[in-house]
């Protein structure tokens, strides 16, 4: 076997391992210890609460069972046997929003007096301000968590304030997806149609969209612990959809540069993407007015991807 064929075989073997690990990931999983980068790890645990038979432990185990049986396919949770008061979760951005295919990670803390008080969430923002309800410092603004205002969650049919007897972590996580990531800046056409006018709605959509894509780059470079395989497999399987969607939104040189970075990152992550630059290069995705009136942009596309492919 020559060196080229040997290298190709090694790459295929690595790809198979990545995809196999990704397919084996369960929506809800229990690990032994929490990761050292968990935001709430520094909060001292209450040993009495952790003991078998306590009301706190019984409530947490009830939450575990609820998650195991009812999580939607777009939310994944890790819990920890040695720190039952902690969880780490990822929510996948819903389709037809600027957050589509993006990953949103949260660390969860169940306070000592839970469920009399709601759980605490810390958002892993990577210092990106992509959503007004997800602060770059990690604060999550959700009425179910802290403000006491009424909320409606269509997935779990939960309505009203936090109720120690009825509310649960599943309602909180699905509210993040259905209230924060879905309703905010939601556009049925996925951003198409807003582009032409360049109005304030499109600019907000574009900001959320480009920052979500930037977050993908940061996650591939530094995925949260316990979710390394998930991040790698998720972007391996969704790279084509992300690039196709991005090409529809691309309207300036900044977005062109970010497309280049995404393309590079996905290729390095093991997805074959070389056909995407050629489609952009010949202007297939550009509207007619952009082909005729934005010659400078088209020229920059050609220059960028000629350098990229050489």
Short summary:
Keywords: Transferase, Ubl conjugation pathway. It comes from Datura stramonium. Helices cover 48% and strands 10% of the residues.
Task: Fill in the keyword field for this structure.
two-stranded antiparallel ribbon, 310 residues, five-stranded mixed β-sheet, single chain, 7 strands, alpha+beta, disordered N terminus, 48% helix
Indicate the topology.
Elements: H1 3-23, E1 28-31, H2 47-50, H3 55-70, E2 75-80, E3 86-92, E4 103-109, E5 120-123, H4 143-147, E6 152-153, E7 158-159, H5 169-182, H6 200-221, H7 228-249, H8 253-268, H9 275-281, H10 288-293, H11 295-309
Poorly predicted ranges: 3-13, 147-159, 282-287, 289-294
How many beta-strand elements?
7
What would you report as the Rg, rounded to the nearest angstrom? 22 Å
The percentage of residues in β strands lies in 5-15%
Quaternary organization: single chain
Structural category: alpha+beta
Number of helices: 11
Secondary-structure element series: HEHHEEEEHEEHHHHHHH
Share of helix among residues?
40-55%
Average residue pLDDT: 81
Distance between the termini: 28 Å
Strand order of the largest sheet: 1-2-3-4-5
How would you describe the shape? Answer: globular
What does the largest sheet look like? 5 strands, mixed
């Amino acid at each position: 076997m020559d060196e080229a064929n040997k290298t190709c075989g090694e790459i295929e073997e690595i790809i198979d391992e990545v995809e196999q690990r990704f397919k084996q990931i369960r929506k809800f999983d229990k690990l032994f210890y929490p990761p050292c980068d968990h935001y709430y790890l520094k909060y001292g645990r209450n040993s009495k609460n952790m003991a078998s038979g306590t009301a706190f432990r019984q409530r947490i185990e009830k939450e575990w069972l609820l998650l195991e049986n009812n999580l939607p396919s777009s939310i994944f949770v890790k819990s920890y046997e040695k720190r039952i008061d902690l969880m780490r979760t990822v929510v996948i951005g819903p389709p037809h929003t600027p957050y589509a295919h993006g990953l949103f990670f949260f660390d969860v803390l169940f306070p000592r007096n839970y469920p009399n008080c709601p759980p605490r969430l810390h958002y892993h923002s990577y210092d990106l301000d992509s959503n007004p309800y997800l602060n770059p410092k990690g604060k999550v603004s959700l009425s179910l968590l802290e403000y006491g205002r009424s909320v409606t969650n269509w997935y779990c049919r939960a309505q009203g304030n936090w109720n120690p007897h009825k509310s649960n972590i599943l309602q909180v996580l699905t509210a993040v997806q259905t209230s924060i990531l879905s309703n905010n800046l939601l556009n049925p056409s996925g951003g198409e149609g807003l582009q032409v006018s360049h109005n304030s709605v499109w600019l907000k959509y574009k900001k959320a969209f480009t920052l979500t894509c930037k977050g993908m780059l940061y996650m591939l470079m530094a995925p949260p612990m316990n979710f390394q395989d998930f991040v790698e497999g998720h972007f391996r399987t969704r790279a084509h959809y992300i690039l196709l969607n991005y090409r529809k939104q691309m309207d300036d040189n900044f977005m062109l540069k970010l497309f280049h970075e995404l393309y590079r990152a996905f290729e390095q992550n093991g997805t074959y993407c070389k056909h995407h630059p050629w489609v952009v290069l010949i202007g297939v995705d550009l509207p007619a007015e952009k082909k005729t009136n934005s010659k400078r942009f088209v020229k920059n596309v050609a220059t960028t991807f000629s350098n990229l492919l050489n």
